[in-house]
Write a structure and sequence with these properties.
The protein is α/β, with parallel strands linked by helices. Helix content is 20%, strand content 28%. It contains 4 helices and 9 strands; from the N terminus they run E-H-E-H-E-E-E-E-E-H-E-H-E. A 9-stranded mixed beta sheet has the order 1-2-3-4-7-8-9-5-6. It starts with 8 loop residues before the first strand and ends with a strand.
Amino acid sequence: MDKYPQLRIFPEEIGERTRRPEVKNWKSRKLTTDEHSHGPLCNAPDGIYIVTLSERTPAERFEMAHLLNLASKGTRSTHANGFVPADLYDSAIAIANGRVVGGAIADRGRTMRKTLELKSDGGYISGSASGVEFRPFMWDLWVHPAHRQKGLGQQLLSAMAEHFQCSVEQMGFRFPISKEARLLLWSMGLRKVEGRD
């Protein structure tokens, strides 16, 4: 499978939070069979778009997050808003070939309680965190099945880390972490991650 080229990141400053009507006031639509199979169509240029509740965040980015929620329905985040940002959460949405193909949502900061030592086969050994450290916290990551194994997961994790001005290694993760996600983290060179339930 061919990997996607490095997608441009369209950043957004963390900045002041504000109530955004786009979070709740969205006119939902049905996905076509083609969109279910390959991802919802989107007119934005290819890239990874950071979505926050900042007053400067373009409204179109909320549309992208809502489309990702439609595409990932039933397999997506347990976060109340799915991939739409909230008071303490920011998102990254991937657009490739004119389609919404993946996303991530992360808390701006939580304390870490547990560790996972990762194994090359996707296994792990769990333990307690050595200290209680406050850091950005990856809540969920999802890539459309038609676009998996093409490097988008790595790009989304890296974009969220860049947004929070840290490395992927410095981020925390919501446990449990799926075997696929553990293998992704291993492929990125991580051998130990911290997080919490």
